[in-house]
Amino acid sequence: MRYVVFNQKGGVGKSTIACNLAAIGASRGLRTLVVDLDTQANATRYLLGAAADAPRAGSADFFEQTLKYSLKPQDVAEFVSPTPWEDLSLMASDPRLDELHSKLESRHKILKLRDALESLAGAFDRVWIDTPPALNFYTRSALIAADRCLIPFDCDEFSRRALYGLMESVQEIRADHNAALEIGGIVVNQFQPRANLPQRVVQELIDEGLPVLEPYLGASVRIRESHELATPMIHLDPAHRIAQAFVELHDAIEARAGARRRK
Ligand SMILES: Nc1ncnc2c1ncn2[C@@H]1O[C@H](COP(=O)(O)OP(=O)(O)OP(=O)(O)O)[C@@H](O)[C@H]1O
Ligand SMILES: [Mg+2]
């Protein structure tokens, strides 16, 4: 099962959600890979902390290799690093992703990530792809490589309107390149239960029949601390309400995916 976490809007919680859900699966013994396709490297920093600064092969090296034809390409596994947590691995980001972007696009390397992740299918039970806040080559590669798309939503009225365009982009990729891609659901983040606007905006999504997942994730300074300490919530403070919400969300997403597979 390969998940992509996608929203063109910045700062809605993509990296936070991808890393925390991945860490929960890994803590249960699912062999899990996080793929960081964002040059900001937030997921890489979140999972590796200061060690993220050490040079390592990662997603930029993988994509660079696709530009140089070789009879003996490096195995995709060589672009994957361990993290401090058992069963959680990372294909790290690198600033070179920016330089490579236009070359990869002009040379039609859009299916390479899918092929690479397929070659790793025996090594990992779950893959979580963190994407940049843009609909660019990397995001499209991820949507083509994934089975399921999760869309973080920050309860903002503008974001609600942007969701329709975003879902159309996903549907277009599904129609053109990846019939297996399903919208796994909308993840409500930084929800304030006592404010009117977020409640109304989320209710509108539900009324319009959009797949809003539960539980909603509240806002907590603990999340920022978790980034600073480079420790996902399940390891930092498993009893915290946000950690518990992530666990319930993880199980809801997995249950939905399982139900679809059985159909
Ligand atoms: N539920 C939450 N409570 C409090 N802070 C949060 C929560 N979710 C995310 N944040 C904070 O909001 C910021 C943005 O989160 P994150 O980096 O996960 O978003 P993103 O969508 O990946 O951003 P970008 O588009 O820049 O990649 C981070 O500083 C993170 O700590
Ligand atoms: Mg991010």
* Overall shape: globular
Helix content: 40-55%
For the largest beta sheet, what order do the strands appear in spatially? 3-4-2-5-1-6-7
β-strand number: 7
Helix-and-strand structural type: alpha/beta
In angstroms, what is the radius of gyration?
Answer: 18 Å
Ligand types: adenosine-5'-triphosphate, magnesium ion
Order of helices and strands: EHEHHEEHHEHEHEHHHH
Mean pLDDT: 96
Q: Unreliable segments (pLDDT under 50, ≥5 consecutive)? A: none
Q: Helical segment tally?
A: 11
Distance between the termini: 16 Å
Describe the structure in your own words:
- The protein is an alpha/beta fold and 263 residues long.
- 47% of the residues lie in helices and 13% in strands.
- The chain has eleven helices and seven strands.
- The protein has helices spanning 14-27, 42-48, 59-67, 96-106, 112-119, 137-145, 157-176, 196-207, 221-228, 233-236, 241-262, and strands at residues 2-5, 32-36, 81-82, 88-91, 126-130, 148-153, 182-188.
- It has a seven-stranded mixed beta sheet with strand order 3-4-2-5-1-6-7, with helices on both faces.
- α7 links the parallel β6 and β7.
- The protein is globular, with a radius of gyration of 18 Å.
- The structure holds adenosine-5'-triphosphate and magnesium ion.
- Magnesium ion (MG) binds next to α1.
